[in-house]
Amino acid sequence: MADQPTPEATTENTPPEEAVSQKPSSGGVFSRRRLLGTAGATGLALGAAGGAAGYAAAPAADKAAPLTSLGADTVMFHGKHQPGITTALQARGHLVAFDLAAGAGRKEAAALLRRWSTTAQRLMAGQAAAQNDTDVARDAGPSSLTVTFGFGNSFFARTGLEKQRPVALDPLPDFSSDHLDKARSNGDLWVQIGADDALVAFHALRTLQKDAGSAARVRWQMNGFNRSPGATAQPMTARNLMGQIDGTRNPKPSESDFDRRIFVPAAGDPAWMANGSYAVVRRIRMLLDDWEKLSVKAQEDVVGRKKSTGAPLTGGTETTAMNLDKTDADGNLVVPLNAHARITRPDQNGGAAMLRRPFSFHDGFDTDGVPDAGLLFVCWQADPLRGFVPVQRKLDRGDALSTFIRHEASGLFAVPGGAAEGEYVGQRLLEA
């Protein structure tokens, strides 16, 4: 939908830097057509995540080739950056914030991050939890599981680390479009979970929640989803629940200035945030009943792009540069002044950029049948005061899309760099 990283857009499904696809060692891969044909011929529905046999598997002596390699895909836990930032979009996601328990401080927080890091490393490798595993993910592979940890503004006062709190973590300003529920905003600690299998993602969520023990309690938790990998005939930019192709001009790791825009430099301030990033999290309700009453042409004028292809209204393909000065036969701008894609362009916002990596959500219907659905917006940037804030301020002043969305929850979190071998996430802060 948007040309740039904005609170209403999703990320382009770009190849991850840290993902390593581990294909099954033997046998071929069934096509979707062949799989459906086999199921129809036998009258059985077969499942094999990551090459593991399902409960209705054939006898061991009659081993079949894995149906898919999706479950075998692995993302590394240790690295320069935490996983889940440049990782390609995952089919299932959970966002959860915790508050430290009364009386818990720096010591308890360090022990908790140590436990969480150990659990995340094991689960991302496709292993069971170290203690009391629930078996929810038994039979499944890693399924591109990622676990990402961050610290909220309030964490530093709770742990006596106020002097280490980054200036960039100052509370976000109020925006006129905000209708925020404080109970579902902010938090001492933030965890992002993503996977290509729903049971694998839930298993990680439940295990980390149990690991918190008496040190922290859940403040809020949200569930999201994206299109499953392989659902389209070829890789393409995602669509959101408004039906729009969304995230066309998301920054890509291959771009020369990507690291400068998304990650805190190695010599950054404070030192413990080296190679980290800042995540803005927003629960954005889409007013789908109102949106779906618009004609396709009216929807395209709101966004500034063709709904079918994502191409700018000025012509070309999805990646064609938008001609902001082009007019029609009557002298009217082809891309309206308040079109979302026009307002969010970097050259209209002093080069402000952020990497959008959200999930869609649907939390049911109210008594009138109105869907509680929209976007769990997550964006990454080296400095939210230069990334998210100026763009959102401009959207506040006249984005045509604002009529059809409502910002209901918000959070800002400092996400430190990745843990080295033998380290836990946040160790450089908590043990400095």
UniProtKB/TrEMBL annotation:
The lineage of its organism: Bacteria, Bacillati, Actinomycetota, Actinomycetes, Kitasatosporales. It comes from the Bacteria. Transmembrane segments: none annotated. It catalyses: heme b + 2 H(+) = protoporphyrin IX + Fe(2+). Involved in the recovery of exogenous heme iron. Extracts iron from heme while preserving the protoporphyrin ring intact. Residues 1-30 are annotated as: Disordered. Residues 1-19 have a biased composition (Low complexity). Residues 82-226 form the Dyp-type peroxidase N-terminal domain. Keywords: Heme, Iron, Lyase, Metal-binding, Oxidoreductase, Peroxidase, Signal. InterPro entries: Dimeric_a/b-barrel, Dyp_perox_C, Dyp_perox_N, Dyp_peroxidase, EfeB/EfeN, TAT_signal. Belongs to the DyP-type peroxidase family. It is an enzyme of class 1 (oxidoreductase). Its main location: other. Residues 237-419 form the Dyp-type peroxidase C-terminal domain. This is Deferrochelatase.
